[in-house]
Write a structure and sequence with these properties.
This protein has 359 residues and is α/β, with parallel strands linked by helices. It contains twelve helices and 19 strands. α1 (13-25) packs across α3. The longest helix has 22 residues, at 170-191. It is elongated.
Length: 359
């Protein structure tokens, strides 16, 4: 770890490659992978992750807004980039940077129909998520608009699964899949050509593999925080001990005096906090970290830029490396402790944390 930074997110691109190839092995030769790199590639750094995925032959990259897409283009990414939420004000930037757009309502569709510059579009339908997407009854009104707009290149139709990770909701997911199949069939009959379709996300592929269609959109599966033993977490978050101190019985530690020492203790201060994405719910003995093979509890409340751990009885020094998550403590396990999901743990990692990549 040759870096002047004390807090580092270490990202193993070889594990990313292994995850990509494992997921690809579940696909038919004709099914393509759309790599989800929105939200700074789930905190891992979108440019480096996207370049690796491009090297691996990913069909397209999925981002949230036009700024993410523009940043990737400026970094030299040539692969197709699909903007999930293009918004109403970014038309010129999207055209200039050759970004594909997901069209999910009439306002957006009218905008892209009215402006006559060539654009690649993907039509999104709502099948039960009730977030973005046209409804089934919109088909008859949107098809003529697309047919009368020769400058629009229709690439695909898509939808989004709401509960593919929950086996208790299997019937709901199957209903969504069935609805999407019916919508796609109606759409193709009216548009009078075969259209590429994509619906499955990471859990969708793992739990409903036979419905993979023409493409799959893979996000959390690439980063390895998912319930499949063949997928490996690609990142480890490390920091260091910046101060060691002895506190006496009845001393308080941290804001709010929420922790009172019941005995004489040795504590260590770690220079990361909730501004870096360390969830405050991990304070007060909920969370822990590893120093070597020692698991050390977080004590007191987590501050903006630091937190304290109990190192009583452990031989540690200022400057020793601390693992906040990694091979000894997975992001999935941390998320379970505070009743959240790995996506949130990753997405809230502040960009001031140094990202270091290795093969």
């Amino acid at each position: 770890m040759n870096s002047p930074n004390e807090t580092i997110l270490h990202i193993d691109l070889k594990k990313l490659e292994q995850n990509f190839n494992y997921l690809k092995s579940k696909l038919k030769n004709s099914t393509k992978i759309i790599g989800v790199v929105k939200a700074f590639a789930y905190g891992h750094g979108d440019i480096k992750i996207s370049k690796k995925l491009e090297e691996l032959g990913v069909y397209a990259l999925w981002v949230s807004d036009f700024e993410e897409g523009v940043a990737l283009r400026k970094s030299g990414i040539k692969t197709k980039i699909i903007v999930a939420n293009p918004g109403m004000k970014s038309y010129q930037e999207i055209i200039e940077n050759q970004l594909d757009v997901v069209i999910y309502n009439h306002t957006l569709l009218n905008l892209y129909c009215a402006n006559k510059k060539r654009a690649n579009i993907h039509i999104k339908f709502n099948t039960g998520m009730n977030r973005y997407g046209f409804n089934e009854y919109d088909i008859k009104s949107i098809v003529p608009k697309i047919k009368n707009s020769s400058h629009l290149n229709l690439i695909s139709v898509c939808s989004h699964l709401a509960a593919s990770n929950n086996k208790a909701s299997t019937n709901y997911t199957l209903d969504q899949i069935k609805k999407f199949e019916l919508i796609s069939k109606q759409f193709e009959l009216l548009i009078k050509k075969n259209i590429n379709k994509h619906l499955l996300n990471s859990y969708g592929l793992l739990n409903f593999e036979k419905y993979q269609m023409d493409s799959v959109r893979i996000g959390i599966g690439l980063y390895g925080s998912i319930n499949d033993k063949s997928l490996k977490q690609i990142s480890c978050l490390y920091s260091v001990i910046t101060q060691i101190r002895i506190v006496e019985k009845n001393d308080s530690i941290g804001y709010g005096a929420s922790f009172i020492a019941e005995k004489n203790m040795k504590i260590a201060i770690i220079p990361v906090g909730y501004a870096d994405g360390i969830n405050r719910q991990l304070g007060s003995h909920i969370g822990s970290v590893f120093i070597g093979n020692y698991e050390c509890n977080i004590i007191g409340e987590i501050s903006m830029d630091s937190f304290a751990i109990d190192v009583t009885g452990i031989d540690v020094q200022e400057g020793d490396i601390v693992q906040l998550f990694g091979d000894k403590l997975t992001v999935t396990k941390i998320a379970q402790k505070i009743n959240t999901i790995p996506y949130e743990i990753y997405a809230t990692l502040n960009r001031r944390i140094k990202r270091v990549y290795s093969e």
